[in-house]
Amino acid sequence: MKAGIVRFPGSNCDEDAFHAVADLLGQQAVYLWHKDHDLQDVDLVILPGGFSYGDYLRAGAIARFSPIMQEVVAHAKRGGLVLGICNGFQIACEAGLLPGALLRNDSLRFVSAPVTLRVESIATRFTAQYHVGQLVRIPVAHGDGRYTADADTLARLEGEGQVVFRYVDEHGEPTRAANPNGSLRNIAGIVSAEGNVLGMMPHPERAMESLLGSTDGLPLFQSILDTLQGGVSA
Amino acid sequence: MSQSSTTSTTSAPVSQVAPRPGDPAITPALVAEHGITEFEYERLVNMLGRTPTFTEIGVVSALWSEHCSYKHSRPMLKSLPTKAPWVLQGPGENAGVISVGDGWAVAFKIESHNHPSAVEPYQGAATGVGGILRDVFTMGARPIALLNSLRFGPLTSPRVRWLFAGVVKGIGDYGNCVGVPTVGGEVVFDPSYEGNPLVNAMCVGLMREDELMRAVASGVGNPIMAVGARTGRDGIHGASFASEDLSEASDAKRPMVQVGDPFTEKLLLEASLELIRSGHIVAIQDMGAAGLTSSSAEMAERGDVGVTIDVTKVPVREQGMTPYEILLSESQERMLVVAKQGHEDEVRKILAKWDLEAAVIGEVIAEPVYRVTEGDRVVAEFPGSRLVTECPQYVLEPRESEALKAARAQDPHEVTPLEEERDHAWTLERLLASPTIASKRWVWQQYDSTVRTSTVRGPGSDAAVVRLRGTDKAIALCIDGNGRHVALSPRNGGRAAVCEAARNVACTGARPKAITNNLNFGNPKKPEVYFQLSEAIAGMGEACTVLETPVTGGNVSLYNENPQGAIHPTPTIGMVGLVESLAHVTPSAFQQEGDEIVLLGECTDELGASEYLLTVHGLTIGAPPACDPAVERRLIDALLEAIGAGVVRSAHDCSDGGLAVTLAECAMLDRSRLFGFSVDLSPWALLPHRAVLFGEAHGRVVLSTADSAAVLRIAAAHGVPARVIGRVTNADAGAQFTISDDTFRAPVAWLAKAFHEAIPQAMDGETPAEHAVSASHAPVTD
């Protein structure tokens, strides 16, 4: 697998994603510069976390206009895989790769904490290595993570199995207390209708080593790897 | 002192410096407004051989301010130990640097932003983080961790809650955006900080040893470039503002507080590291306090060269800025760079990649002068490096405050216990809910602590542990200080601050290696404050020598006073330790039911200066517990040997709140994983029981182990007292204490509620009133 990690001005989880792919998965990783148009033939584009363009105007709102994003959108339209994490999820929504939007946390405060997620769907190219209903611990760190969409979109996401991760308590219940940002329906991550773009607020790249407290992000990357090696790249 | 603005000079300077049209006349009132004393003004006139210009008055007011010049503290600071084989860069640079082996080096520094945070908490704290980040990355190191040490008045005050919330948000927003994890720190609440909150920020960076860059100007003909953000009118005189007492009028100085832009900082960070590695520059320095003035004068002084700067070449945000304003602006996210001659375009190219500007604004010259021009007109000129070196230094007569002497002489054992204290569980619960001791989760949840995927132990641990990727090593980091202990016994308090920081680092499995320090004190011109300063520094030096943790740099923040009085003298110590193997990383909290609990060190009858006296009785009295660095050294050696032998399951420093609080924390730091415990403290039954439980005797660590015999053997070999005091149990068994026939038991969930909900309750009122846990203390006063 060859993964391309986009570097916007203000990206700050780019090195973490690179480390996850190159050092922990042993796969090829390259950086993609925001001013470039060359995707370098990558199989997977990662839109990493951070504060692209300082979150000016709105998180992700300026990044979508960068030269590299034109190529990322084209890549997605061809069925190529895109993983948007945190700010990358916000950018994917702004660029129209995913429905809905991410608003300011309802606490009005940044939240950095390990959270429990329930895996809602394994019928995606990103989650086949989990099992349905599995509870995983993955950190969040964001100020704008409250997922919002209109009622029709929410119904469609739920109906089509596009909700992939949900914030839950230790018993697996999507309670208000378990929701770190006020997301509608406790949504933490969704996949596009075509199944090739995943956006999630939690950081799977921070949950890859037991030394750092959790390896629950590892199956996500392994699922992607399996998908690509199985030749199901589109 | 010259009374006239037209005094002519007899000794002709190298170039003609004349008053600039439109500048105010130099009058005694103007000089005084700039915080320059008559003595200092005379010294300046003698140095120049003429009347200074308005621009020169501005330059000197900044460079000779306490904040930039350390004029009251430098003679004392010289006594601190600064050398060890692993110290690559000691005090005097933007940051200290130590080697951690394998060619890796760690740069670190602490800095205060107390005064700006007192009037504008959000921006004041945010720009404090920005400044300390720049100090570290200008050394060539990539910032990998941030910590902070905060002091506020009691949370019962709405203004304090506003300051606290603003400071925390400011720190979080800045560090989170730049992408450097905030991994630890401390927050203390005490009435002495009500008018003067303290905001100290520490940054730690990592680099290869051969990438170390120093801010020393060199190479005649090399261009001086301004890099990064443009210069505006913000923050003019910030350094001078930070060098005076706060008053009712301080709020009017809010425009002096700079405004931060972490996004530009992130770009500047990447561009600066790329510049340093590119080989196109010879020096780089942050334009921090006193901006362009300070950065250029200091780089020239270190390099023993002259510099000339043309203010009309400096990229500005606003039209019509005077030389005075351009030189003194403290606009954020700017760097001063000495490039190699002929490499200017390469420098511009690197900056342009990161959407930033670079402009040549001056040049390194052979002539030993510091010269500022406005086009062809010379507006300021100082001979050689004397602008920096001639700053007066003051050595004053110290005298201990009679009031504090009297407070120390009071016997805490004569304080009559409250009726409720018959039940020690009541006292314990009350202490756990005191905001200084209570969990700071409310704070650190606003800080991204896991970005960079290297945080092995984050906030809430005795010390943070950050792995060095690609090696089996990690660094342990903490900040510690206890102003109450220093107030009541400055020398002992200085020793204790260093020793407690060292203990914290050692509890995580790290050998303490070096410190940076932030000296937060009142007005040094008062003999009582000067006494505290000189004694505390002496105590720090004693401890650093014994622990072999040299001082690599630091910051001095004086004039932390307001009309209601001065703060407790508060040195904060930023300690860096080295974990030789990741297998040695040790948690603070209990891990396993059935483990034995061992106390390293001794309980004493010391109760003075304790959190117990402040929280329960509103008193700051008594002699603080004695701190002996030699005892601490043996304790740390024994602890690290036991950890290295693999027989320590958890280790937690015993400090605020004493042994009972330490044990309770071990049982419930992680609220999702509670333990119980049963301890027998009967060996100390003859001592006052509240001193055994809540006294803050130094030199103690609580650890849990499955092999107490090995721990006791190792302790004995180091001459460290050690005893098995009990056992880790199931949470349902509760926290069980026995001191001879004095026994009590407290439900762990109840203690955990007090500890974990006190601050959220005080800030957000999230706990229903009927469940409020002692958060409604009356304001406590000395």
Number of helices of chain B: 26
Q: Could you say how many structural domains of chain A there are in total?
A: 1
Order of helices and strands of chain A: EHEEHEHEEEEHEEEH
Strand share of the residues of chain A?
A: 15-25%
- Report how far the terminal alpha carbons of chain A are from each other: 14 Å
Task: State the secondary-structure class of chain A.
Answer: alpha/beta
Tell me the major beta sheet of chain A: 9 strands, mixed
CATH names the topology of chain A as Rossmann fold
Tell me roughly what share of residues is in helical segments of chain A.
10-25%
Largest sheet of chain B: 7 strands, mixed
The percent range for helix content of chain B is: 25-40%
- In terms of DSSP E residues, the strand content of chain B is 15-25%
Strand order, largest beta sheet of chain B: 8-10-7-11-9-12-13
Number of helices of chain A: 5
Shape of chain A: globular
Number of beta strands of chain A: 11
Radius of gyration of chain A in whole Å, from Cα? 16 Å
Keywords:
heterodimer; A: 234 residues; Rossmann fold; 5 helices; 25% strand; B: 782 residues; alpha+beta; seven-stranded mixed β-sheet; 26 helices; 23% strand; globular; disordered N terminus
Description of the structure:
The complex is a heterodimer of chains A (234) and B (782). Chain A has 234 residues and is of the alpha/beta class. In chain A, the strands form 2 sheets. A 9-stranded mixed sheet of chain A has the order 2-1-3-4-11-10-9-6-7, with helices on both faces. A two-stranded antiparallel ribbon of chain A has the order 5-8. Helix content of chain A is 22%, strand content 25%. The radius of gyration of chain A is 16 Å and the shape is globular. Chain A has one domain: Class I glutamine amidotransferase (GATase) domain (Rossmann fold, 3-Layer(aba) Sandwich). In chain A, a hairpin with a 5-residue loop joins strand 10 (187-191) and strand 11. Chain B is globular. Chain B has a 7-stranded mixed sheet with strand order 8-10-7-11-9-12-13. A 7-stranded mixed sheet of chain B has the order 23-25-22-26-24-27-28. In chain B, strands 1-2-3-6-4-5 form a 6-stranded mixed sheet. The two termini of chain B are 44 Å apart. The model of chain B is unreliable at 1-14 and 767-782 (pLDDT under 50). Chain B is 34% helix and 23% strand. In chain B, helix 22 crosses helix 25. At the A-B interface, helix 1 and strand 6 of A face helix 8 and helix 10 of B.
